[in-house]
Amino acid sequence: MNTKVYKAVHDLAEKLMAAANKNDTKQFESLYAELKDICIENENTAKDHPVQWETLADFTEELEEAIETYEKALQKSIEINNKDHMSSVAFSMATLQLELGDKEAAIKNLQDAKISANKIEDKELKSEIHDLLESLVEEEG
Q: Which of 31, 60, 113, 120 could link 66 by a cystine bridge, Cβ 3.0 to 4.6 Å?
């Protein structure tokens, strides 16, 4: 990922967290718009990367819109075959799909996340994916 873009996205994420923690809606919305502009500006260029889309989705308050943005991040992750992002994005999507009551889609994303997670080092994420998937499959069975 382009270092300049990564730093800009990372800095915005930190500022978005601070604004959210202070309940500063005006600041949050301004920073969110800035992050969205970066994503749109870089889309389908050499600077396009799943990190920016995943970060945007993380801060998107409307669940359906967040899922759509995670889907974009997932596609970009698949295009560059980045297993870490494929796993984390699919996991994040699944948690939102559960909030919306779409258990079937959540299970599918968790199954995909589990496959991708076989190739990553993040043991905590692997465990979270496994545990959530197991709990949903047990409910089904």
A: 60
